[in-house]
Each structure stands twice: as structure tokens, then as C-alpha cells.
């Protein structure tokens, strides 16, 4: 996908998403990649206490390992987009899996915290970034009608892997130490290479179908169908070649398409997503410490995150199914706005929770709303820019989100240290999420929907490229098959014409025999032979 044709230097024609088949294998690979990308930086935190003892550093120093991983995941989006557009998704994912595994394996041999930043932070974070973005691109290529459900199922990998990797990391650290745990975790990350290997580009299936169509066409050309039909076929071929010559040649795909900034929907989505990320991750980061300050025991405080993860597992696929409904999908941006509004109001309403029961209720509603946001965020982006420009769009969006990630949680931590009050932080984070929801809904309604109503309906032009990806793919496949179908129709019409001409000759011969009555013997013999030959010709043609 996104690779250039070595012979013509052009991009392959868009292919109709199969919405199943091998796409389910791609979906499973995306599920695994999403789980590693989002859960791994959080699961590494179980090793922080041992790292603090061995390297004689503080908690903030070890916390930079997870922060660097997330910064690489978000900040290297444009670099990943360029690599995908240049080399394709599968090679980039294979390289990313090797880098992620190598980073953790090398981290097991480090002797200071700086080396950990470079190996487990930079190298592993870059490897996961090179896996995460291409997996979403391939998911959008394989699914169209079922894409909301596919995005929801893939997003469920994050809570599933978080609930599995954290206990696994604790067990590995107790049995093998943090170095042995890092080494084994590096081996687990090699599964990213397996997921990258199953990301089969769709243009391979397109080439096979074109080869079958070409074989049918060559077989038709070998049949003896008469001189007149050959002239008609040559004429039709000449017309088709003339039409193709008039068409402008396709331009090669840009390494990073900045033209998406001319899309008002993309601008609105980017601004809304930046405001959202400022407050979205703050409550789960501060929740455990907030619970401990209210007098909740440590074990019960840690269990609050497990509640969020468990609810999140079911919320994401369920939201994907709802977003895929026919009457909901055209308005998926409003559903995304509702999810953000729900999440923000949950933060605001739960800011005064002072007991464990209130915090559990907060975790239930936060898990539902957080899962809805996670399931819809990339589906909305795909719906806005389309699958052809999604590789560039997601890279630029992740880069912009990286600044918000570096601003939001650290600023909240400083406010907690200064004010010693978590209630203000929950109000502030919830207000930011609500603001992003209101901005997305109002901007979508005022700037996009009203603009569409004012514009006159565009005239149908078959040469225009404003259709959906599915319609473009269907038209390309139909155009490939029209050539062979036209020849088949010409051959069939030529056979009918020859049979009609033979019947007409036979009819004329019968009329002449009736009018002549008494023909000479020689002429009668010749006429009989001619009539016999004509009858045989007619029967052979009919056969």
C-alpha cells in the first residue's frame, strides 16, 4: 500500500476493501499492535522501584522512560508517514518490530539511567511508532462498511494487554529480576514482526484479477470471428487507446501530503483533538494518588485502574458496533462529540468524590466514556480525510498531540504540588474535555453542514474524482473488465450477423427456384449444389 509501480512510476489504483476475508487476520494484527503500543509504556512502570534501587535515582527520573516512549509514539508520526508512503506498510512494520525488540534487549544490559532512556525509551518507542501507524492504515484499507466495528475491536487491544502485561511484568521481575524481565519482554515484542508480516497489501489481489482479465481477453482474440469483427475490434481498441491517451497520467504519491490542511474538517478535528488530549489522560494518572489521599488502602486504590480497564474492554467494541449502524455512521463526528462530553462531565461530577464507593462509580462511567473516545477517534479521522490521505493525516495529528501530551499531565502534576488539591485538577481536566466536545460539535454543524447545504449539488461527471474509495475501486475493476466484455459482445453480434446473412441468401435462392419453375438441368444441378452448400453453411453457423 502506498508503494510505487516500478515500471510506470505510478501508484496502483485503489482497490475495493474486502470487509472480511484476510482482513480479519489484519484486524487481529492491529489488535496486538495497539495493545503493545498503548499498554507497554504503562506496564513498564512495575520495574521502576527496582530501577530506583539499582541506579540510585528518584521516581521522576524513572518515569521519564514511559514519557519518552509515548513522546516517540506521538512525535514521530510524520516520519512514519513518509516511510509508509515511500516503502509501504509491511516493510516499515517489520523494521519497527525489530527496533522495539532490540531496544528492550539492549536495555537489559544498561548500566545507568541515560542508557535506559536511549534504549527502552527512544529505540523501543520508535519501533512501536513504526508499528502502530501502519497497522491503522492497513485496517482502513481492508475495511469500509465494517470499519467502525474494526476500529472498535482493534482499540480493545489496549485495555486487554494492559490487564495482561502488568501482572506478567510483576511475575517476571520476581523470578528473573528487572534485567531478565526486560529481556523476555523484548522477545515478546518480536510478535510485532509477525503482525507486520500478515499485512498483505491489497494491490496484489488487484494484480491477480487484472491478469485473469487479460488471459480472458487473449483467449477471445485467438478465436476465428471473421474479418469484419476484427476491423470493429481494432476500431474499438483504437478508440479506447485514444481515450486513455487523453487522460492525464497519475502523479506519484507525496511523501507527506500537506494538502489535507485545506480540508476544514481536518482542521476542526485537529484543534479539537489537541484540546482533548490536554485533559483526557490526567484523571487516570492521578486517580491512584487521589484515592490514597482520601484514605483508601493501597490495594483497593490500585484496583480502581483495573475497573477502568475491564469496562474499557467491552466499551470499545460496543461503541464500534453502534458507530457502524446505517443511521449513526453519517453522524459519527457527533457521536464522538457526545463521547468526549460524557467523559468531561464524568470528571467534573466526580471531582468531589470523597469515599471509595464514589470513586468506583467514577471509574465505571470513566471506563465507558474513555472506551468510546478510544474507539471513535481514528474512525472519525478516516471518515474526514479518506483512506488515501489517512497515512499523512494520522502522522500530522499524532505530532500535534505529542505537544499536548507533554503539556497536559506535567502541568497537572505541578498544580497538584502547588495547590495540594486534586479537586481543582479534576475540574480543569473535565472542562478541557467538555470544551473540545463543544468545539467539535458546533464547528462541524456551522462550518461543514451549513456549507454543504448552501452549495448547489455537483453535476455528475464520470471523470471527476470526488467519489468514495469504494466507488473508485469498483469503477477501476469495471473498467478493467469492460475491454474483454466489449470484445465478447462484438464476437457474438458478428456471429448473429453472419447467420442472418446466410438465412437471407437461402431465402433468395428459394424464391428464384419458385419463380423459375423449369430451369435447365445444368442450371438446376448448379443451383441445387449452391443451395445445398448454403444450407450446410447456415447449419454450421447456427451450430
UniProtKB/TrEMBL annotation:
- From the Swiss-Prot or TrEMBL record, give the protein name: MOT3 protein
| Ranges of compositional bias, category Basic and acidic residues | 229-240, 504-514
Transmembrane spans: 21-40, 63-84, 91-110, 116-142, 149-169, 181-202, 266-291, 303-325, 332-353, 359-378, 390-412, 424-448
Q: Where in the cell is it found?
A: Cell membrane
How is this protein annotated for GO cellular component?
basolateral plasma membrane
Is Ribosomal protein a UniProt keyword of this protein? no
Give start and end of each Major facilitator superfamily (MFS) profile domain: 23-448
Naturally occurring in which organism (per UniProt): Tricholaema leucomelas
Amino acid at each position: 500500500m502506498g508503494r510505487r509501480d516500478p515500471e510506470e512510476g505510478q501508484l496502483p489504483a485503489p482497490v475495493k476493501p474486502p470487509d472480511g476475508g484476510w482482513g480479519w487476520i489484519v484486524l487481529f494484527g492491529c489488535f496486538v499492535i495497539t495493545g503493545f503500543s498503548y499498554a507497554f509504556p504503562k506496564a513498564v512502570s512495575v520495574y521502576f522501584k527496582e530501577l530506583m534501587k539499582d541506579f540510585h535515582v528518584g521516581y521522576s527520573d524513572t518515569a521519564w522512560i514511559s514519557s519518552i516512549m509515548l513522546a516517540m509514539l506521538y512525535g514521530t508520526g510524520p516520519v512514519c508517514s513518509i516511510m509508509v508512503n515511500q516503502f509501504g506498510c509491511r516493510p516499515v512494520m517489520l523494521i519497527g518490530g525489530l527496533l522495539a525488540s532490540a531496544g528492550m534487549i539492549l536495555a537489559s544490559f544498561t548500566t545507568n539511567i541515560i542508557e535506559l532512556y536511549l534504549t527502552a525509551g527512544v529505540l523501543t518507542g520508535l519501533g512501536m511508532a513504526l508499528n502502530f501507524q501502519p497497522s491503522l492504515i492497513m485496517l482502513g484499507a481492508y475495511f469500509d462498511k465494517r470499519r467502525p466495528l474494526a476500529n472498535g475491536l482493534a482499540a480493545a487491544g489496549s485495555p486487554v494487554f494492559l490487564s495482561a502485561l502488568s501482572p506478567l511484568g510483576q511475575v517476571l521481575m520476581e523470578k528473573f529480576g528487572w534485567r531478565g524481565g526486560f529481556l523476555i519482554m523484548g522477545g515478546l515484542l518480536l510478535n510485532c514482526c509477525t503482525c507486520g508480516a500478515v499485512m498483505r497489501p491489497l494491490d496484489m489481489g488487484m494484480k491477480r484479477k487484472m491478469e485473469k482479465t487479460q488471459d480472458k481477453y487473449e483467449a477471445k482474440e485467438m478465436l476465428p470471428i471473421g474479418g469484419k469483427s476484427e476491423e470493429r475490434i481494432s476500431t474499438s481498441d483504437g478508440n479506447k487507446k485514444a481515450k486513455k491517451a487523453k487522460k492525464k497520467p497519475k502523479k506519484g504519491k507525496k511523501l507527506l501530503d500537506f494538502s489535507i490542511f485545506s480540508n476544514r474538517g481536518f482542521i476542526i478535528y485537529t484543534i479539537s483533538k489537541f484540546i482533548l488530549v490536554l485533559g483526557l489522560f490526567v484523571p487516570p494518572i492521578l486517580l491512584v494518588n487521589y484515592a490514597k489521599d482520601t484514605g483508601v488502602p493501597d490495594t483497593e486504590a490500585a484496583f480502581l485502574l483495573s475497573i477502568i480497564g475491564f469496562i474499557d474492554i467491552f466499551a470499545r467494541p460496543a461503541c464500534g458496533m453502534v458507530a457502524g449502524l446505517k443511521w449513526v455512521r453519517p453522524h459519527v463526528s457527533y457521536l464522538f462529540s457526545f463521547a468526549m462530553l460524557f467523559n468531561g462531565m464524568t470528571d467534573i461530577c466526580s471531582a468531589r468524590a470523597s469515599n471509595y464507593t464514589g470513586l468506583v462509580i467514577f471509574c465505571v462511567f470513566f471506563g465507558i466514556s474513555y472506551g468510546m473516545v478510544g474507539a471513535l477517534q481514528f474512525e472519525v479521522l478516516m471518515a474526514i480525510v479518506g483512506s488515501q490521505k489517512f497515512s499523512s493525516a494520522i502522522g500530522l495529528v499524532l505530532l500535534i498531540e505529542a505537544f499536548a501530551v507533554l503539556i497536559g499531565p506535567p502541568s497537572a502534576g505541578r498544580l497538584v504540588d502547588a495547590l495540594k488539591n486534586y479537586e481543582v485538577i479534576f475540574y480543569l481536566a473535565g472542562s478541557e474535555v467538555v470544551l473540545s466536545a463543544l468545539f467539535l460539535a458546533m464547528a462541524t454543524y456551522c462550518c461543514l453542514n451549513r456549507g454543504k447545504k448552501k452549495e448547489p449539488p455537483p453535476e455528475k461527471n464520470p471523470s471527476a474524482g470526488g467519489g468514495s474509495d469504494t466507488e473508485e475501486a469498483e469503477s477501476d475493476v469495471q473498467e478493467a473488465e469492460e475491454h474483454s466484455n466489449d470484445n465478447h459482445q462484438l464476437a457474438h453480434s458478428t456471429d448473429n450477423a453472419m447467420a442472418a446473412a446466410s438465412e437471407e441468401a437461402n431465402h433468395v435462392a428459394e424464391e428464384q427456384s419458385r419463380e423459375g419453375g423449369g430451369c435447365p438441368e445444368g442450371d438446376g444441378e448448379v443451383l441445387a449444389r449452391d443451395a445445398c452448400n448454403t444450407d450446410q453453411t447456415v447449419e454450421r453457423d447456427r451450430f
